[in-house]
Amino acid sequence: MRRWPAERERTTLSGPRKSFFSPRSFGSGELVCGERPMFEKISKKDGREQELIDSYQGSRIVKGIDAEVGSAPWQVMLYKKSPQELLCGASLISDEWILTAAHCILYPPWNKNFTINDILVRLGKHNRAKFERGTEKIVAIDEIIVHPKYNWKENLNRDIALLHMRRPVTFTDEIHPVCLPTKKVAKTLMFAGYKGRVTGWGNLYETWTSSPKSLPTVLQQIHLPIVEQDICRASTSIRITDNMFCAGFKPEEDKTGDACEGDSGGPFVMKSPDDNRWYQIGIVSWGEGCDRDGKYGFYTHLFRMRSKPLSWDQFHRYGGWLST
């Protein structure tokens, strides 16, 4: 998550394509998205899943814990080649495309302007620090697209970017896409008090320098409730837009938990009781500190980004800006 006091790459976009969300350019995965083969197909129980379902009716809270292997098969690690280190989280949305936060790629105040030659994507990971032979795949990217109206100067509005993998990946128990939210899903699940699951390998506590002591060994997860938009706005002096939502615990709830530095770009997911699929509702974007009283984590509102998708032609129109 971009810690506020408060990139992207010089890329060539190929010839005109259809809207990103058309099946022809999107790749495969929509029919099986949101499933977790290691859990659903073999009836393995996710011990923490019921808490999310309960939150759609009542309230129960947990702190961050180690995620179970295979519980977030859409989780992706963005990995910087030099020096070799964790850059951000991301999510798999098809066999070709990765979704992340734009500020992971482009953030001039911190000299971030990464190219396709700077980043690898690591899929099927659970352990942060080691290569997991047999399950992990490391793939290069050949295209980066940052939202042309991403506002890094003021408030990280439209903090979203797409990464295209050089070769399609094969889905496995550990590598599987998450679903993108439909209007029905957004209207059903996006209510204050309803909880989503955030996953990542980011810092375990607030610090300005990441070290092995501040980073987890394995993927972490936490369940956080969506907060009323007026409370989100009142919690900060930064201008909040409808392209964002916030989540976290209110001071009076006497509970703790948040995303932190290194979790940026990762998914905020919810499970739909209607079809038992997992949908990505948000992208970890920014916050003021980590887990501070009266402060919340802010997320890119993915349905709003998808409900009026920019066509490839529109992206091309901004190609000159993206190349600077």
UniProtKB/TrEMBL annotation:
<dbReference type="InterPro" id="IPR043504">
    <property type="entry name" value="Peptidase_S1_PA_chymotrypsin"/>
</dbReference>
<keyword id="KW-0865">Zymogen</keyword>
<dbReference type="GO" id="GO:0030168">
    <property type="term" value="P:platelet activation"/>
</dbReference>
<dbReference type="InterPro" id="IPR003966">
    <property type="entry name" value="Prothrombin/thrombin"/>
</dbReference>
<dbReference type="InterPro" id="IPR018992">
    <property type="entry name" value="Thrombin_light_chain"/>
</dbReference>
<dbReference type="GO" id="GO:0006508">
    <property type="term" value="P:proteolysis"/>
</dbReference>
<dbReference type="InterPro" id="IPR018114">
    <property type="entry name" value="TRYPSIN_HIS"/>
</dbReference>
<dbReference type="InterPro" id="IPR001254">
    <property type="entry name" value="Trypsin_dom"/>
</dbReference>
<keyword id="KW-1015">Disulfide bond</keyword>
<keyword id="KW-0378">Hydrolase</keyword>
<keyword id="KW-0325">Glycoprotein</keyword>
<dbReference type="GO" id="GO:0030194">
    <property type="term" value="P:positive regulation of blood coagulation"/>
</dbReference>
<dbReference type="GO" id="GO:0005615">
    <property type="term" value="C:extracellular space"/>
</dbReference>
<keyword id="KW-0677">Repeat</keyword>
<dbReference type="GO" id="GO:0005509">
    <property type="term" value="F:calcium ion binding"/>
</dbReference>
<dbReference type="InterPro" id="IPR051659">
    <property type="entry name" value="Serine_Protease_S1-Domain"/>
</dbReference>
<feature type="domain" description="Peptidase S1">
    <location>
        <begin position="61"/>
        <end position="324"/>
    </location>
</feature>
<dbReference type="GO" id="GO:0004252">
    <property type="term" value="F:serine-type endopeptidase activity"/>
</dbReference>
<dbReference type="InterPro" id="IPR033116">
    <property type="entry name" value="TRYPSIN_SER"/>
</dbReference>
<keyword id="KW-0720">Serine protease</keyword>
<dbReference type="Pfam" id="PF09396">
    <property type="entry name" value="Thrombin_light"/>
</dbReference>
<dbReference type="Pfam" id="PF00089">
    <property type="entry name" value="Trypsin"/>
</dbReference>
<dbReference type="InterPro" id="IPR009003">
    <property type="entry name" value="Peptidase_S1_PA"/>
</dbReference>
<dbReference type="InterPro" id="IPR037111">
    <property type="entry name" value="Thrombin_light_chain_sf"/>
</dbReference>
<protein>
    <recommendedName>
        <fullName>Peptidase S1 domain-containing protein</fullName>
    </recommendedName>
</protein>
<keyword id="KW-0732">Signal</keyword>
<dbReference type="InterPro" id="IPR001314">
    <property type="entry name" value="Peptidase_S1A"/>
</dbReference>
<keyword id="KW-0645">Protease</keyword>
